[in-house]
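Aim 2 progress. For BTB domain-containing protein, the working sequence is reproduced below.
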Amino acid sequence: VEGRLFRLPRILFEEQSTMFKNEFLLPSPPTNESDEAGGRVSISIRLDGVNRTEFESFLWVLLPLPHLDMTKQDWLDALQLATMWEFGSVRQVAIDSLDQLPFTEVERVLILNEFDINKWRPTAYTRLVLREEPLSAADVGALGAQLAAKFSAAREQ
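Predicted structure tokens for this construct:
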């Protein structure tokens, strides 16, 4: 990730993600270490399009370590990679942790739509429709005109 080598047990990835399981089935490039029988001891997988901070946040959730100092952005980064790589258990831990953090109604709707968090949908939509203040220009910009119009129509009803 961004030129940095992370050495991790591959079983953490194989057991939880079909994408990584399939990646490990590919033939070893000649630069990888092999044991005497020719089996793969280590493999390097380049993760393009992922930055180091996102990956480290993901690892904090994947590995059984305390998550005390994780920020909202750390949890969102972990959720993004867990969703992209189909790590169901990491995704669920991130969702449960994000659910405990304070977000505006609009932020929560944007997150649930981006990551398809269906369990948040009824409460988040209801809170946005029932809140006292109308949608601001910033809210409309964040939600997009079509979704903002739907929320405005629901608020009018």
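The radius of gyration is 20 Å. This observation will guide construct design in the next reporting period.
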